[in-house]
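Lesson 9: reading folded outputs for more than one chain in a single document. The general rule is that every protein is listed as its sequence immediately followed by its structure tokens, and records are never interleaved. Here is the first one.
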Amino acid sequence: MIRAIVTDIEGTTTSVSFVYQVLFPYARTRLAAFVQAHGEEPAVRAQLDAVAREAGRPLDDGAAVAQLLAWMEEDRKVTPLKALQGMIWEAGFRGGDFTGHLYPDAVRGLRAWHARGLRLYVYSSGSEQAQRLLFGFSDAGDLTPLFSGWFDTHIGPKRVADSYRAIAARIGLPAAEILFLSDLREELDAAREAGLDTRWLVRDGGPPPGAGHVQVRDFDAVHW
């Protein structure tokens, strides 16, 4: 019996185009000014120090910004980058520059599952702060009360089975009672290796036949 659902965001609850055409450019164009204005604040400084550690060399603020921009171009899932993007996006969400895109079927599914008593969680490469902002300032309003918890790459990489074992331990349920939703095979493979049930969201196009996971077009088709 499934008692908890963990969902990815990009390509699963949220359009990939919203992430790449709205969120990423917004952060990219404001990164240098943000670091200049807030670089001495403890939370920001901690992430800039983490950039240097990740890069493996000392970096002044200008070099840190250059490294962050390079990671953005490479679409790297680096924890300090995701944290700083979340800080920048907060101003955009709170200022009304955009709202968080959610597929209508995802909204229906999340609300219905919550009403049935299932515990809902997010696991995304985006920071916990960014996750809360997207669902808190979504097209459908504030959906954060639906969720019991949030996981980002602090718990581990999304393509590693140990990350899902850690999530199951944090949730406090047997892995077999947790359903993971994603649009990426490598994440689903890792979750299944850890014992979670899986559903592959194939909203645009689709994976090859026999890919090893139950495939669904939207949240309306998720059953167990």
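And here is the second record, again sequence then tokens.
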Amino acid sequence: MKKLYSSTRRSLVLALAVAGCGWLGVAAADDAYPSKPVRMLVGFSAGGAVDNVARQLSQGMSQRLGQSVIIDNKPGATGTIAAEAAAKSPGDGYTLLLGTQSTMLVAPSVYPKLGFKPLQDFVPISLVASVPLVLVAHPSVPVKNIRELIELARSKDGGMMYASSGQGGPQHVASELLAQMAGVKLTHVPYKGEAIALNDVLGNQVPVMFGNLPTLLPHIRSGKVRAIAVSSLQRSEAAPDIPTIAESGLPGFEALTWFGVFAPASTPRPIVDRLLNDINQTLADPATRSKLQAQGLTVMGNHPDQFRAYMKTETVKWAKLVESAHIKPE
């Protein structure tokens, strides 16, 4: 994701230009769309990070589409319940999915019998935003950077324990990627959610964990946990003093939480172009960008061809990790 992450403004400008050209064809192809509210499925509970992004996006899209974009939360199974429902919906532009990397990239390898295939059953319309994970340690753990953490992990016969939000989640796969790239053993302690995992790190029951940066920043600033490094290729604007894992000794390390809009594969291209235009116009709006950035997010915006190419590359990367780390369903 290096090119996408480092040139989000350029990608957004390109997407707006391409979508603008496509919009000329939309009016001719389907003057009636949209003639009723659009439903956006979200595979996670209301009030969480994914839901918050969906609601910020839906407000701007509603204004531009001239119809309400209604959020429909279908939580469970790493977002795959919502994704399967979206994949089986008519491709008429009235059902969309706000998907994440854990649902669209990792889950198909962890759960091989899923009822959908992301690259076959969906049109990836546009990346919306991304947020890095941050690796933190309890203050009592004698590490201040990645090199010290690796040395400590190597000194432990059974490997260093780490907490995660659950099997196959972003924290889990990021930790396994770190273990593989560093050549150390890390022992997984899964929880049912990030908040529960964090509680045990705060209480020093488990020494380290990856977590979403916006969630952990207050605890980092209060000194309840120590920030080791972020998982993006570039430092986060929300916490520029925290180094990246890539710059700290593991070049190329990247594990992001991202959010993107998908439509069923049979959705006509003129409708996809209309949605692309309105999504990226929304992301270009200063008020929307400001709200998303205030949550620690990097605003993206790109073109379906860029999004699909990125997914193909990342699917291979994470499939290899899931297989080599023996990540299985709970």
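What the second record shows: The longest helix spans residues 8-29.
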